[in-house]
Amino acid sequence: MDYNQLKTFTEVAHIGNLTQAAERLHLSQPAVSAQIKSLEKRLNVTLFKRTTNGMELTPAGEVFLPEAEILLQHHHKLDCFAKTLAEHYVAHADIGLIHPVPSDKITCLTEKVLRHDPDILLHIQYGMSGEIEQRILDKQLHGGFFLGPVNHRSLRSIFLQDLHYSLICPAEAEQTVRQDLPASLGQYAWIEMSGVSGSRKHMQQFWRKHKISPKRQIICDYSQTIIDLVCQGTGVAVVPEHRARSAKESGRPIAVIEEYRQTMPLNFIYLNEFEEDPILNLLKNSVEEVWGI
């Protein structure tokens, strides 16, 4: 069975859109359509039906998809094995890190990976959740951490823990903020991370739930600077609880509005196609050991 046709089929099935699948595959839309038609002709079944929302799998397509995914997993595993035959092969492990992950967990994870394979070249890349997700989809990473629910069909996830977030304001403004919650929160600038962060969507849901219309928004992707800005009286923000606690314990002039404590799920995500990848399995096992799963 043609590998390229299977790859095209799974991409369209996962994304549900021919144009977006073509972009991911670096092909033209007609080329993607032609490969799907060729596969359907070979199998003598219809795999997709067109709808106003895009491409949907038929019952036959739903049954065929997991089998196609397994074949792609084995193909990737064989490709990984072939690379180990090179004379000067060095194993590379690429993992995506986001700022909310506790640093002691990453230290422990690094130790476990290197204990299992002392010769591995470990590359820990930093980014926002959306950036890490995209790098995994583009096969630039074996896996990575992700904040929030995982909705992409191409990805698998391991739930690690709920991360707690605190709403903080300048210490001098605490009394004013508490006088008319939650309406008072709309009178301040909100310092938040950009749209590719896992917390941005959650923040917008928080605003809708409490009918808050921020006076102004300031985008900042560095968590420590967010806390610094709150200390300076620039606005309010939602930050990881452990960072808020650390700031207060060190005497920074912030106040925590405990009534609006929030939680977000932390996941380890990876590409479905990489399920049989030996390096990914090393990372998964190490992550599960660190989080006690």
TrEMBL record:
Record-stated family? Belongs to the LysR transcriptional regulatory family.
Tell me where in this chain the HTH lysR-type domain is found. 1-58
Q: What are the record keywords, sorted?
A: DNA-binding, Transcription, Transcription regulation
* SUPFAM superfamilies xrefs: Periplasmic binding protein-like II, Winged helix' DNA-binding domain
**Per UniProt, what is one GO molecular function of this protein?**
transcription cis-regulatory region binding
Question: Which is one Pfam family of this protein?
Answer: LysR_substrate
Q: Which domain of life is it from?
A: Bacteria
Q: Which InterPro entries match?
A: LysR_HTH_N, LysR_subst-bd, WH-like_DNA-bd_sf, WH_DNA-bd_sf
Supply the name of the protein: LysR family transcriptional regulator
